[in-house]
Amino acid sequence: MLITGILITIVAIFMIVVPQFFMRLKSPRIPDEWLKSPKMKIILRVWGSIFVIVGFLLIVFSII
């Protein structure tokens, strides 16, 4: 659980810092007009924040 928490936290932080990388992934395909939308970056940053919290919780529960 510790390793899973660390991996989730690292990917989530990367999602917050560089959301463009995750927007350009091939699966699932995102329409081009959504890629140019600033709302999409905000949505990815919110998801990244949620996953950071989940990753920290996994780390804390594995240590306790």
On the 0 to 100 scale, the average pLDDT is 85
Number of discrete helical segments: 4
List the helices and strands in order: HHHH
Q: Which class of secondary structure composition applies to the elements?
A: mainly alpha
Q: Spans of 5+ residues with little confidence (pLDDT < 50)? A: none
Share of helix, binned: over 70%
Main sheet specs: none
Shape: elongated
Number of strands: 0
Task: Quote the distance from N terminus to C terminus.
Answer: 11 Å
How much of the residues is beta strand, in percent? under 5%
Round the Cα radius of gyration to an integer and report it: 14 Å
Structure in words:
This protein has 64 residues and is mostly helical. Helix content is 80%, strand content 0%. The protein contains four helices and no strands. Helix 1 (2-17) packs antiparallel against helix 4.
Compact overview of the structure:
With 64 residues, the protein is an all-alpha fold. The chain has helices spanning 2-17, 19-23, 32-35, 38-63.
Secondary-structure map:
Elements: H1 2-17, H2 19-23, H3 32-35, H4 38-63
